[in-house]
Specification:
binds calcium ion, 278 residues, EAL domain-containing protein, two-stranded antiparallel sheet, alpha/beta, binds ligand C2E
């Protein structure tokens, strides 16, 4: 009578097993791809509502697998975290993103780049040195490099996490709390993080066009974030109506398909050129 599916035997679930052969293959393929530059960074602009101008871009990894086609980051990033491959992924992303920022500065020297890192990166003794050397190599102002970390990742190992984040901000980098409002983080802990920005999770913004209650929640989150001294970014903005509402509710910055979808560097450069002339 036990309703076990074909891949389940008691508590052991094949589906969740990170040592599943196909997943291990995927991870060794990912390491190869990173090594041979078969991964790519796409960039999505973030705009200031006060000026309507692009203030920075977020780097988002893309992987086109030779047999499987596009593999979405939500499929391989968590797996890379579990297996430790994230260390290689993050190194590749930081390398590429900081080189690319140097190029983007030809168009606008004030642009920032945001890089996503994971909980596991925070326990790597190489992380601070990685950002430090790549920033110097490209002669970038570290204040133009923003590290995005989800609140749950920051909470993973609060003590170690906090000291790593303090080291990163001590060398001038900025910290952004990603997916804000999506988890159950303790506000008293969040307050201790050396962050300068929060990104409201897309889920929070979902119903703001139709629900007064949803708008109240977003407005409260924005006020609270600003009260704690953070700049507030609303992400995943898909419509003009949402953008207008978020402006009224007090958000400082917006990101989302309504403004621009993530694009390869050269397409983003073309988009920025058009924007600049507009
Ligand atoms: P995230 O950091 O919260 O990134 C935002 C996600 O929302 C991205 O998905 C982006 O393409 C998508 N997005 C942007 N605008 C809109 C919109 O208007 N509507 C909707 N529905 N979605 C929008 P993506 O690129 O698939 O990345 C998913 C997640 O994978 C990211 O969430 C991040 O947690 C992770 N990720 C992506 N790139 C990296 C990376 O280089 N390193 C690490 N550690 N994680 C990454
Ligand atoms: Ca992010
Ligand atoms: Ca996010
Ligand atoms: Ca996310």
């Amino acid at each position: 009578m036990a309703p076990h599916g074909p891949y389940q035997t008691g508590l052991y679930s094949r589906k969740d097993d990170i040592y599943d052969e196909s997943r291990l293959t995927l991870m060794s393929d990912l390491r190869e791809a990173l090594h041979h530059n078969q991964t790519e960074l796409y960039y999505q602009p973030k705009i200031s509502l006060a000026t309507g101008k692009v203030v920075g871009v977020e780097a988002l990894i893309r992987w086109h697998h030779p047999d499987r086609g596009w593999v979405p980051p939500i499929e391989f990033v968590p797996m890379a975290e579990k297996t430790g491959v994230i260390k290689h992924l993050t190194r590749w992303v930081v390398d590429q993103a900081l080189n690319d920022l140097k190029e983007l500065h030809a168009l606008d020297p004030a642009l920032t780049v945001s890089v996503n890192i994971s909980a596991r990166d925070l326990s790597s003794p190489e992380l601070v040195g990685l950002f430090e050397t790549r920033t110097k190599r490209n002669q970038l102002n570290p204040e133009q490099v923003i590290i995005e970390l989800t609140e749950t990742a920051a909470m993973d190992d609060p003590h170690r996490g906090l000291s790593a984040l303090n080291e990163l901000t001590a060398i001038g980098l900025k910290l952004s709390i990603d997916d804000f409002g999506a988890g159950y983080s303790s506000l008293s802990y969040l307050k201790k993080l050396p962050a300068s920005e929060i990104k409201l999770d897309r889920a929070l913004l979902q119903d703001i066009e139709s629900s007064e209650g949803a708008r109240m929640i977003v407005e409260t989150a924005i006020r609270m974030g600003q009260g704690l001294g953070y700049q507030v970014v609303a992400e995943g903005v898909e419509t003009e109506k949402s953008a207008r509402l978020l402006n009224q509710l007090g958000a400082e910055m917006l990101q989302g398909y309504w403004i621009c979808s993530p694009k390869p560097l050269h397409e983003l450069q073309a988009w920025l050129e058009v924007e600049r002339k507009a």
